[in-house]
């Protein structure tokens, strides 16, 4: 993957991690608005799902 794709992936991971952390520890707060994620290939989407599951 290119450097730009990796950068976007890490930004998306950080946003997803923050949303999950807020959902678990502060469920009464409204969710921050994030732009919709770019369309990821299936391999990258699977990597993100596994990474978030590992963090939980």
TrEMBL record:
Superkingdom, taxonomy of origin: Eukaryota
Stated name of the protein: Uncharacterized protein
Organism field: Suillus placidus
Lineage: Eukaryota, Fungi, Dikarya, Basidiomycota, Agaricomycotina
